[in-house]
What we know:
By secondary structure, the protein is α/β, with parallel strands linked by helices. The chain has helices at 19-25, 27-30, 48-60, 67-73, 82-98, 107-117, 137-155, 191-202, 246-263, 298-310, 346-361, 375-388, 400-410; strands at 102-104, 133-135, 163-169, 178-180, 216-218, 220-224, 226-233, 268-274, 278-281, 316-323, 329-331, 337-339, 364-370, 391-394.
Amino acid sequence: MRYTTYGKWTGLDLDSMSLEDVMQALSDFFLQSGFRGGRRFRGADDTIDGLREALLRLLFKEGFLSEDELDALRGDDEEISDAVMRDLVDRLIERLIAEGYLSVEDLERLARQGQMADGEGSVGPKSDVPLRFEVTSKGTDLLGYTALRQLMGAVGRSGIGMHETTRLATGVEASLGSKQYEFGDTMNLDVNATLLSAVAREGLGVPLALEYGDLMVHQSEYRSTCATVVLLDCSHSMILYGEDRFTPAKRVALALSHLIRNQYPGDTIRLVLFHDSAEEVPLGKLASVQVGPYHTNTCEGLKLARRLLAAERCDMRQIVMITDGKPSALTLPDGSIYKNPFGLDPEIRAQTMREVARCARAGVQVNTFMLAADYALVEFVKEMTALCRGKAYFATTLNLGEYIMMDFLRRRRQTV
């Protein structure tokens, strides 16, 4: 038997509040990379308490709720009580978890925290470990969609198709002239051209004998496929010098991932982080990755990206490398890491260039997006770009996304 429960009407329908709008408004919080200004570094706040604080700021200090909604929450003293604010925030967190945007490691513990906030406490084992949450794949996809929408607005593109080329192919979509059928072509028969070929060969008559050479098929524009590895620098310099370069880079990677998975179904995209070493990270974990006290092992990142692309069977293979510093680390044959942050070490430079040459021989294009422009770095990127016939863009955190989107969509050539 079903029961209906009733509660006091507060004038605020929490269930109608858009969780997508909440996630988008908190995108900076979810994508934080440990930047705290200057040279200080601290891990991103992925605790439930940190999420509560972020929601409190959003709802009651940053204008997410309208004045009418705030008035509905005020009591007789014209103030919004702490209990009302806590209850609203906890219910929002519960909805985000129930709808699959967030996950927590211990749902029972979260429920106990909610009971304590309502005043129904109990004595239990003390825990000094904060309760943490994680953005799910669904939440990451929404953040990627939000970033893509913002970037495409800046680029000025409203419609996105597959990668166009100057070559022709046979296919179902008949947009150009016909050609004689060859083994392996899609059998999209041009009936009129086939009959005309037979008539031209033996004249008009009945019955009309068709031969293999009479077969004509429609042509359409050949659409290529592309395999992409995003090579993301997560060394310490990405948050040094008073600027957070890593969070905008993550936002662009999320947008590019969403674009490829939804608009280019034949394409693939993978993510590789490089620092003292390099490792592949699932795209669903991109929102939670952070910088650390690392150096820049560009060679190891390129090597892993090249190996991943070697397994892809696409017409185009490319590495999109986002970095702000010259190589400062190298993996030695015995597995140890050689580091030299002072200048451009000759051995590190030589090994990195060898790996760039291997990428070029394997048909992998390396497109580099630099977030810094000191002289030594510019010269290094010039040499690397010339070696692999790739493209280099010297960008800032403000226009990085536009550069990468325009490069991916237009496939333009720009060498430095």
